[in-house]
Structures are given as C-alpha cells and as structure tokens.
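Lab manual, section 2.4: Encoding a predicted structure.

Procedure: take the sequence of the chain (318 residues), apply the prediction step described in section 2.3, and record the output as structure tokens. A sample record is shown.
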Amino acid sequence: MHAYLDFERPIAELEGKIVELRQLAADDPTMEIDADVARLQAKADQLVKDTYAKLTPWQKALVARHQGRPHFSDYVSNLFDEFTPLAGDRLYGEDQAVIAGLGRFRGRAVAVIGHEKGNDTKSRLKHNFGMAMPEGYRKAQRLFDMAGRFGLPVISLVDTSGAYPGVAAEERGQSEAIARSTQAGLELRVPFVCTIVGDGMSGGALAIATANRVYMLEHSIYSVISPEGCASILWRNADKAQDAATALRITAQDLLDLKIIDGIIPEPVGGAHRAPQEAIFNVGEQIAKALAELSPIPGEDLRRLRREKYLAMGRNLV
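Recorded output:
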C-alpha cells in the first residue's frame, strides 16, 4: 500500500478493508471474498476518481509533492537510452540536485537536464531535496552551451521547491547563476521542451524552463514562490498556505488559462504516484510530439519565438 495524503483518508479506509479481506482469505482458503472485494474495489475506484476530479489548489500541491511520484532518475531510465551524465560546472564543483547529460530519445541524440529530489532519506540528502546550489545552474549553462554547439534538442524535467536559499549559495552567486541559466535557455537555437513533473517553484524552476514548449503534468504546480513562502511573507503565517495556493493560481489548469504553459499532460486516475509507468509514458509521448513540431523550425526562428513567448506573458492581464 502506498502513502496516503490527508484528504485521501476515505480512500485509504476502503482500500485498507480490501487488504484485510485478502489477508483473511490467505489465512482461510475456504473464505469466499471475490464478490466483496469486487464491490469494495469498484467503490474505491469511483471514490478516487471523484476525489481527484475536484482537487483544490492546495491538494494539488500535496499531490505534486507525493513521495511516490516518479523522479528525474525514473524518467531517464525509462525514456532515454545511453544516458551519460555530465558533472561539475568547471568553476566550483558538482551539484547533485541538478542532473544533466546526453542521451538518446527514441533514437535521437538529445541533451537532458532536470532536478532530482531523491526517493529515500539517503538519496534526498545526497540530492539536497532537489534544491540546487549555484553550481547546479552553472552546470545547466554548460549543457545549454553544448547543446547549442552540437545542435542537440534540449529536454528538461522540472521538480524543485526552489533553489537552495542558504548563506553558502548566496555567497557563491545564486541569483546570478539562476539569471545566467535563464538567459542561456532563452538564447538556444535548438528545440527546447520542458515538463513540470512535480514542484515547479521560483527561479530555481524557471532557470531550466525557458523552453519553446512548456508542459505540466495534470497535478503538478508551477509558481514564482511556494504557497508556504508566500503565506509567510504576506500573512507572516505559514498556516495560510492553502489560501496562498489558491491566490497564486499554481495549478496546470490555471496556468494554461493564463497562457503561461502550452499544455497539460494527463496523469493516471489518482495521480502519477499510483501508476508511475503510465505517467512516464504520457510525458514521453508529449515530448516526442513537441520535438516533431519544433524540429523543422530554423534555429534563429526558435530563438525568436521563444523570446517573444516569454515577453508576451502577462500582457493580456494588464
């Protein structure tokens, strides 16, 4: 059984009863439970469907952060062949929160970059929970430069609660590194496709998301600041995070309406954490479609269209 979120308690109770019935049947093979299990399973499936059809922005934030969602390493192992990571920024050191490298996507050579949060205590500490230091964003600049020189399409997968805000990061030029990475993405003359697969918070996300096509998984979130950070600043109370999540319009549906993103990738019923392979497949299909659309466009036009896309954001809201 997977980890349940607070709003999934009714689902957890139903699915827990199914597990209990199966355990009882395992102990007593004479028990006839098929009809009861089928009835409870149908009820649980419908409850999952109904619950996820009307999630609040805050509930979507919780789903986007679910520990069972596929991470960058899962996407790489399933979507890319011959992936070769590139380490270091050639200025200070290596940052494990941002992973970058070269590989093949459905036979085509590509440059790949994304945030890695880790999936257990040890790996989360290793990857600093997906919060990158300046050297992570300078590594991104290296990858963008290499992709431009060799004509490789860039694929990015965003999943971060933000760049690391510590003193050491500021001393090493965090804001400058983020700005340079953002600029490097905008300057690319190759197809650039980005997918927000979980958390997409602050400049730490935007630094590798200035793409020609930006997509979001159905229950991912994308914003200038986390709901908790916004609540702490505006109300000086992190308990107001639910109100902040609504006000910030962080959901994929809101951002598509605002023309911030280019499309929404459907998730399995109940979220990507319930069927990771299906979610990964859906992301791969959308990336393939986007690359097919972008590849015939000349490099200078890709750069121009990308810059115009970001300069136009927000104008229709004035």
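Check your result against the sample. Strands lie at 80-85, 98-105, 108-115, 154-160, 192-200, 213-217, 263-265.
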